[in-house]
Structure prediction request, 86 residues.
Amino acid sequence: MLKALRIISCVLAATAAAVAVPIFIFFDLWGLIPVGLCIAFAAIMFICKYEQEKAELKKNPPAPEGDFITGRVEKNAPADGGKETH
Prediction:
């Protein structure tokens, strides 16, 4: 659903931007209305993009990676690094 909202709001933002030019030419400051709509639709598009990416990361988190100190993290490695405590 978020993907559809992103596409629809992108199309509406582009349409509002295209309509703004002739409205500015023929009706002066009335062209600020489509510019405002363009900004609103662009904001909706970016919010939907952020929420979609957040939901995708929640469903499918990236694999763990090591850093330059600990090295590569194995998928099934124990949490203590394989050290046995006595």
Observations:
- The chain has a mean pLDDT of 85.
- Residues 32-59 form the longest helix (28 residues).
- DSSP finds two helices and no strands in the chain.
